[in-house]
Every structure is written in C-alpha cells, then in structure tokens.
Amino acid sequence: MTQIATVLIPAFNEAAMIGRTLAALDDPRLRLVVIANACTDDTADVARRAAPRAIVLETARPGKINALNIGRFCTLPDLPVVFMDADLDTTPAQIAMLLAALDHAEAACGRMEIDTAGCSPLVRAYMRAWTLNPYFEKGKFGGLFAVSAMAAARLFPLPQVTADDEFIRRSFAAEDIAFVPDCSFTARAPRDLATLIRVRRRALRGAHALSGTGQRRGSGARAMLRHALPRPRLWADLAVFVAVMALVRLQLALEPATAATAWERDTTNRPVELHR
Q1: DSSP string for 212-266
Q2: Does domain 5-275 have CATH number 3.90.550.10?
Q3: What is the pLDDT of residues 20-55, one digit of tens each?
C-alpha cells in the first residue's frame, strides 16, 4: 500500500503511553518513526511490540529537538511530515484530515480536547479558562500537526529551542496554516496544581526564549481575558488562571539562569500499568 506521510514521534520515558498511542495509529499508509531519546525505561521495546511496522530509533542524547532532527532522516521523500507527541490519542482518520488540508496550506493543525479526568478542581478550573484563549479558535498548533514536504525541508534541521512546537508555528504566516476543526486529538492535563505550574513554567520559559528570534508573537493572556471577562460564570476559573500565571511569572523572574535548561514534564498522567 502506498504510504502518504511520515509521523515523527519523539519519546522520552514514554513506556506507559507509547503502546496505546501506536496501537491507535495502525495504518500501513503512515510511516511511523519513534525516536526514543535518552530513555531510562523500555520505551523502545514497548514501541516495537505495539507497532512492528514502525521504525524505532534510539539515541543516548536527550532532547526533543535532537530526536526530531534524527527522525527526519527516516521521513518519506517529497511527502508531508506529521509531528506528534507520544502521549496523545488520535487516529489515522484524524491525521488524514490534516494531510488533506495541505493541498492548500503549508501546515495544518486540529482541535485539541483536554482530558481532565482525575485532575484536581484547581487544574480543571485553569483548563476551562485556558481554553477560552482566542488562540484556540484557530486550532491548537502543538502536540499534533502536519507540514508539507517543502515546509519540512525548510524547517529541518530544527534549532535547539525549548518551545519546539511554538517555534514551528511562528515559522509560518497565519494564512499558511490551515485549521481543520473536524480533526481532534486528546491531551491529558496534569493531575495536580504543582505539576501544572511546572509545565506552564517550562512553556512560558520557552516562549520567552523565542522572543529574541524575531518571530511573530502569539496571542497572550490579556487577549484571553478580554475574550472571557464578559462571562461572569467563568470568573472563578479566570481567577485561578490569573493566579497560576502570576505565580509562574514570578518564579521565572526569580529562577537562576541555569534553570533555563530544565525540562519540567508531566508524569502524573502516565500510569505505569498502561504498558503492562
């Protein structure tokens, strides 16, 4: 069967999730490339068992950017490239929608659903407010998105940045990104407030690092607040959002320069039993 795209899946200690992710992508039309980077668990072995057709690479060097740059050498020539996080839920049909949109765009993204099952009330409140950001009206360029073959050739090799998804998004003009509302994928929210703060700190740190690259800036919290304040029923959620972001900004202002290299990931939503 003719293959239609490469799906690059960088994976750092994702043994708990990678099997489930790959099992849902069982389609011979997709070349799955899993790059296990600096894993200390059995991510690569789980990936090989879950998807025997997949190309599974291993590297001792940490870093998502490094993993993507290695994986690009296994992409299909002259065909689109799909970027996908190892802990997401989606299907080949959803990916096919993104690929179809590349007929008239350089990049395509879908709609992110957030799974807050098992999350604390404060995390759920934050997520309800966060998803009101006008940024989401044009889809979520992160976690799962596709780029044309020409765009991929221009993007690689990716520079060593923390906010890789945001860097790629800002590499395109807004009119060159297609939003495919019928394409959805599910991301899991951090289960507790402390982890949420760490993850948001990493994201904001990465966005700040991009500010010196000359790329276009995305819509910020103020745009989200202007959009949401007319809805009194959401004020409590907004208060949680504002408080969390204020704390994150304060922590970033006070942290030492060496903290900029820290990778603060969420492990609360990766139950070990999923890969058994």
Answers
A1: GGTPPP---HHHHHHHHTT-GGGHHHHHHHHHHHHHHHHHHHHS-GGGGG-----
A2: yes
A3: 999 999 999 999 999 999 999 999 999 999 999 999
